[in-house]
TrEMBL record:
The active site is at S168 (nucleophile), D342 (charge relay system), H373 (charge relay system). The lineage of its organism: Eukaryota, Metazoa, Ecdysozoa, Arthropoda, Hexapoda. This is Lipase. Residues 1-19 form the signal peptide. Residues 40-92 form the Partial AB-hydrolase lipase domain. GO terms for biological process: lipid catabolic process. It comes from the Eukaryota. Belongs to the AB hydrolase superfamily. Lipase family. It comes from Parnassius mnemosyne. Pfam families: Abhydro_lipase (PF04083). Keywords: Glycoprotein, Hydrolase, Lipid degradation, Lipid metabolism, Signal.
Length: 398
């Protein structure tokens, strides 16, 4: 029992304790240049300097929004997924979506939700000290972050609507926003969902097992006062950089034993040479509440707000059950792009989402049969199996 406790405390410490500046610097020195550069620096390196904006949400979070100016069509907003950041759209360099769209002249806006490495700021809360900072899930990301980002873009461009491309949780935020604040439907012309995430009741193991265990895991983390996971400077991320970049064994441990079982196996698109770049950017901070909220959606088989239990729900929602998001209110045009080998956004769960959305204008199954949950952003050959569909959507729904 004592050994077990010490182990847990050790692991938890890795989540919460920061590596010293010296350690971080020497570990980062092991990474290739693209693993070390941040979004702004990568954008310059690949020929498209970005302008930075600070977006302040109604509830005081300060988010970083990047703009790569262009002249073609409506503004295009890219929204990343959970534990991820704007980086995800550019870490493939010349092969990435942000660079491809910028080369084609689109006016690009790349968002960051509260908590991640660029948006770990608040007008009054301190993310290192105040638990309240981390008291959010995809609900707040969709209800506060996304509308603040959209309004900033429309304000700066003078456009009346934008187009959006959103990966994983990034597209969940649109279902939350458009169902809770339906007036935003008319500000979004089309949203292309890569790896659509809404229902999670058909995911296979090991994720399904984690979902089953999630109430105990969340309680354990809360008991230890851990509400942030994946901090850029945590010991855990430092170990990730050290272990995952070891030749051969690093790929076997990190990618083949941990990442692929969860997201779907596709070693052609994520080869060992990309791992040292990837670990410099992923994961970045997410809230444990946000992860648990998704697990609740899987357990309850209902796309609803956070479940605080009967008493908590009564207090917060004046109802013993959390309010369900009404997908009937999502009227904006939606394109669903799915991978047959995606173990998180499964065909069966996307089918439920598709049957409940009113305006799915296209449903596309990736021609790459091995397409998993992250190939859309991290894949090496997205220009073959994904970008043509994106360009076609942007041209068709001007
Ligand atoms: C990127 O890194 C440079 C150099 O450290 C820094 O000046 C800049 O503020 C960083 N940009 C962001 C968005 O963090
Ligand atoms: C990216 O592509 C452009 C145009 O093909 C090329 O000029 C540039 O050198 C490439 N950048 C890198 C860092 O590979
Ligand atoms: C988190 O927010 C909910 C409702 O928004 C509130 O009921 C709860 O007390 C908050 N918890 C913390 C730790 O701030
Ligand atoms: C943007 O917001 C500013 C400040 O609220 C306002 O003065 C301006 O008219 C807005 N611009 C557009 C195009 O909505
Ligand atoms: C709470 O719900 C009850 C029953 O639906 C309703 O009568 C009451 O007005 C609600 N109270 C508030 C504060 O909304």
């Amino acid at each position: 029992m004592a050994v077990y406790k010490i182990l847990i405390i050790l692991i938890f410490n890795c989540l919460t304790v920061y590596a010293s500046k010296q350690v971080t610097e020497s570990v980062n020195a092991l990474l290739p240049e693209d693993g070390r550069l941040n979004f702004t620096q990568l954008a310059i390196k690949y020929g498209h300097p970005a302008i930075e904006y600070e977006v302040i949400t109604e509830d005081g979070y300060i988010l970083k929004l990047f703009h790569i100016p262009g002249t073609k069509g409506r503004p295009v907003l890219l929204m990343h997924g959970i534990a991820d950041s704007a980086d995800t759209w550019i870490i493939r360099g010349n092969l990435s979506l942000a660079v491809s769209l910028a080369n084609s002249g689109y006016d690009l806006w790349i968002g960051n939700i509260r908590g991640n490495r660029y948006s770990r700021h608040h007008v009054s809360l301190n993310p290192d000290e105040d638990d309240a900072f981390w008291n959010f899930s995809f609900h707040e990301n969709g209800f506060y972050d996304l509308p603040a980002i959209i309004d900033t873009i429309l304000n700066k461009t003078g456009a009346d609507m934008l187009n959006a491309i959103a990966h994983s949780q990034g597209n969940t935020l649109f279902y939350v926003l458009c169902s809770t604040r339906p007036e935003y439907n008319s500000k979004i012309n089309v949203m292309m969902a890569l790896a659509p995430i809404c229902y999670l009741q058909n995911v296979p193991p090991p994720l399904s097992i984690l979902i089953q265990l999630s109430p105990s895991l969340y309680k354990l983390l809360s008991d230890f006062d851990i509400n942030e996971i994946g901090n850029h400077n945590s010991l855990l991320n430092t170990f990730e950089k050290i272990i995952c970049t070891r030749p051969k064994i690093g790929y076997a441990i990190c990618i083949e034993s941990i990442v692929f079982p969860i997201i779907g196996y596709d070693n052609e698109e994520l080869k060992p040479d990309f791992v040292p770049v990837l670990v410099g950017h992923f994961p970045t901070s997410a809230s444990t509440k946000g992860l648990y909220h998704f697990a609740q959606v899987g357990l309850r088989k209902t796309f609803a707000q956070f479940d605080y239990g009967n008493a908590g729900n009564l207090e917060k929602y004046n109802s013993t059950l959390p309010p369900v998001y009404d997908l009937n209110l999502v009227t904006t045009k939606i394109v669903l792009y799915v991978g047959l080998n995606d173990c998180i956004s499964t065909i069966a769960d996307v089918a439920i989402l598709r049957s409940q959305l009113r305006n799915v204008v296209r449903y596309i199954v990736s021609p790459r049969l091995e397409c998993n949950h992250l190939d859309h952003v991290w894949g090496e050959h997205m220009n073959n199996y994904l970008f043509p569909y994106i360009y076609d959507v942007l041209k068709s729904y001007k």
